[in-house]
Write a structure and sequence with these properties.
By secondary structure, the chain is an alpha/beta fold. The chain contains 29 helices and 28 strands.
């Protein structure tokens, strides 16, 4: 059976004109030609680039699908403009390029962005099968992976970001930052050009969503996203073939005649503020100021600036600035024979571009920031050791020189270039002088390994690597808050546990004990622990469990008795255990009772003084005093700094613990020192000793709950569930508190239980 690889981009690789539909030959299109795995066909999905009348859409849809392998997503003009020129390019683009001063935002742009991403999701879901591959491209569609994963967990979804990803401090400027980052985490594989961008993304996930990650994986909402570094290449063979054509030779001859006797310094880019054009002109002006009039006549700076985003105000202003600056420089340094800067604000054909690359003595590629920058690689591809045409060979021996910004992704792949800091204008000017004076042997030594890299790691290899890794991801992933997906992944484990619990709850002659941790287990962790009150859903679930005559329910927490009373009520219909087992409240007693009589707590003040030192040195932390312990909270600290300090604190407190009856626990964003005689396992053992039970359910989320799970080692009547990631002795795992609540709610007998979806019931039955 044939499956589909759906390539999703903001624009389809076609252009609609009155004369017909023309297929694009851009780099991404070329890169993806012929890379579909065996048994797959490739289709493109995206906006056709223009508004299409409603009555014309069916016919165009059919033509694009049949003749071009494309699925169009039709958008009205205003929606497309607010999505593309608005949020995508006026809000997200400047932040991704670490230029928040260019950031603009309007609420209606965000509405349009969400609407367009949803339209793309709807079209993908309507035209793909469960086992197909979907590869989403770039920042215009950052919400799309999560929309798709929630609707169809079985889809394998890849996402590649063609821009940089900035530091978390920059990305957090966006009002919708959490939604954008969470949107990407719906993908099974997220690709970046460089490890630096990947590192920034992980840091942003940690700081915005509070989600810790491994080097190459992030788990969020029960779904695991793999992260990878995939530096994009060019279609190098296309440039190589072009240089052997008659058309190229003719164009080369014309180019050589136009620049006869001159050394050419070439810049090619979109006219974009990220490209550093103004600073580059400052460096060129400095170079010209150092030359005599005769020397200036021997150098020509050629700028090919491709028009882009004319509807965005900053781009119109940039063009005016650049044209004014070039006019001033040419006016100052022109000679009777020529002007030093030749500025083309237009696109050029492929053959002419190759001729310019081949003729150039120096390529000046100095963006302020760039995801990769393929111009650098295109120039390298056209720099043969022996120049490509006779006219060029007469002008220069050997290849040219690449001057490359250290802030372009390509700098990591092309270290033999002359690498410059584009903000250092004198440094760029010095590099231009060095490049123009560089002897042939050094030019050959620098260019040879770069050409090898460009031809070996080309666009097709880039695409194959990503598709291979995407296919290697699991064909079905856990859906957020979905018992169906979890049960499907662990049929003999969690589904059986659920069936055992549901059966026990439904038979009143069976005695069931349920012990549930609170924070991170029943209730999602929140930044301020003081506001973690139970939601109406949690309160209803606890009432439902407590109402069953054969169930003894206990909420067992590290919280103080005062916290639990404030959150769960002064007289709930279930038991509560505070401070990991120090105090107990039960409906039969009607009051709190201490379980920690005659404990030695003399160590508390010494520990408190240590914690005070860490509180002063770690902004965003605070200390909580408990009757049987002391807790250092670092949830509001910088996540990485807080974790580092926490590890230091654990080591220091371990020295205290060695000589005192104290246990040091490193839980979720806390370090707690408590009496070694108090833990949840001891409390559960004490409570279970009062009567026999047919089934015992124990659920928790961090190291403080492991003493409970340890009890189940040789107790088959015990069901243990770890909520979230991390090493555990628990037999089963659920991804989130929401998934645990659904697990419990769906096990309640009707009419007490809230019915779950029919699909979930079918899996559990």
């Amino acid at each position: 059976m044939t499956q589909t690889l759906t390539i999703v981009s903001n624009r389809l690789p076609v252009t609609l004109t009155p004369e017909g539909i023309h297929r694009s030959s851009g780099g991404l299109v070329s890169a993806l030609e012929g890379v579909a795995p065996a048994g797959y066909v490739t289709r493109w999905l995206g906006w056709p680039g223009a508004a299409v009348a409603d009555d014309a859409q069916p016919a165009l849809f059919e033509t694009l699908s049949r003749d071009h392998g494309c699925t169009p997503v039709f958008l009205p003009d205003e929606l497309a403009r607010d999505h593309y020129e608005g949020l995508s390019n006026s809000s997200i683009w400047p932040l991704l390029h670490s230029m928040p001063t260019y950031f603009r935002y309007q609420a209606e742009w965000w509405d349009a962005y969400r609407a367009v991403n949803q339209r793309f999701a709807d079209e993908i879901l309507a035209t793909t099968g469960d086992d197909d591959l979907v590869w989403v491209h770039d920042y215009q569609l950052m919400l799309l992976p999560r929309l798709l994963k929630r609707a169809r967990p079985s889809l394998r979804i890849g996402f590649f970001l063609h821009t940089p990803f900035p530091s978390s401090d920059t990305f957090r400027c966006h009002p919708d930052r959490e939604d954008l980052v969470a949107g990407l985490l719906g993908a099974d594989l997220i690709g970046f050009h460089t490890f630096g961008y990947l590192r920034h993304f992980r840091s942003t996930v940690l700081r915005l969503l509070g989600v810790e990650s491994d080097m190459t994986t992030v788990r969020y909402e029960g779904h695991t996203s793999a992260l990878g570094v995939y530096p994009i290449g060019i279609h190098a063979d296309r440039f190589e073939r072009e240089m052997d054509t008659d058309a190229f030779q003719q164009r080369c001859a014309a180019t050589s005649a136009a620049y006869a006797g001159k050394r050419v310094v070439l810049s090619v880019e979109r006219l974009d503020y990220t490209k550093g054009i103004v600073r580059r002109l400052d460096a060129i002006e400095l170079v010209l100021s150092r030359l005599t009039p005769d020397q200036r006549d021997g150098v020509r700076f050629v700028f090919v600036s491709v028009p882009t985003r004319g509807g965005v105000g900053q781009y119109r202003e940039l063009r005016e600035t650049v044209e004014h600056r070039i006019g001033r420089i040419n006016g100052q340094y022109a000679t009777l024979n020529d002007s030093p800067i030749h500025f083309l604000h237009q696109s050029v054909g492929f053959t002419e571009l190759c001729a310019l690359y081949a003729r150039a003595d120096v390529a000046l590629v100095t963006p302020l920031t760039d995801g990769m920058n393929l111009v650098a690689k295109e120039f390298v591809a056209c720099q043969r050791d022996v120049p490509a045409c006779a006219a060029h060979r007469a002008h220069r021996e050997g290849p040219g020189v690449l001057v490359l910004s250290e802030f372009a992704g390509a700098a990591q792949e092309l270290p033999n270039a002359l690498t410059v800091n584009p903000y250092d204008v004198p440094g760029v000017a010095d590099a231009i002088d060095h490049a123009l004076a560089m002897p042939a042997d050094e030019r050959r030594r620098r260019m040879a390994p770069m050409r090898q890299r460009v031809f070996t790691h080309d666009a097709a290899a880039w695409a194959r690597d990503i598709i291979t890794d995407l296919r290697g991801r699991p064909s079905a992933s856990s859906c957020p808050e979905s018992i169906e997906a979890v049960a499907a992944a662990e049929v003999d484990g969690l589904a059986l546990a659920h069936r055992r619990l549901a059966t026990a709850l439904a038979h009143r002659h069976r005695r069931v004990a349920v012990f549930l941790d609170y924070d991170g287990t029943l209730r999602e962790i929140v930044r301020d622990p003081a506001v973690a009150r139970p939601t109406a859903e949690i309160a209803g679930l606890l009432r439902g469990l407590a109402a069953l005559p054969n169930v003894n329910l206990t909420v067992i927490s590290g919280r103080t008795a005062a916290d639990l009373t404030r959150f769960l009520g002064a007289a709930p219909e279930f038991a509560m255990v505070a401070e990991h087992g120090a105090e107990l409240w039960s409906p039969s007693m009607g009051q709190w009772r201490q379980l920690d009589q005659n404990l030695d707590l003399g160590w508390k003040e010494h520990v408190y003084r240590v914690l005070e030192l860490y509180q002063r040195s770690t902004p965003g932390t605070h200390i909580e005093r408990k009757r049987t312990g002391v807790v250092w909270h670092y949830r509001q600290a910088d996540p990485e700094f807080g974790k580092w300090k926490a590890n230091q604190l654990v080591e220091e407190l371990s020295i205290v613990a060695a000589n005192n009856p104290v246990e040091v626990r490193h839980g979720r964003k806390i370090v707690e020192a408590a009496s070694a005689h108090i833990n949840k396992g001891a409390a559960v053992t004490r409570m279970l000793g009062e009567q026999p039970y047919d089934l015992v359910l124990l659920a928790g989320d961090d190291t403080t709950d492991e003493s409970m799970f340890q009890l189940a080692a040789d107790r088959p009547e015990m069901l243990t569930i770890r909520v979230g990631d991390g090493e555990t002795r628990a037999r089963h795992r659920l991804p989130t508190p929401a998934a645990l609540r659904q697990f419990l709610r769906s096990a309640l007998p009707r009419p007490i239980g809230i019915p779950t979806a029919a699909a979930a019931a079918a899996v559990i039955a």
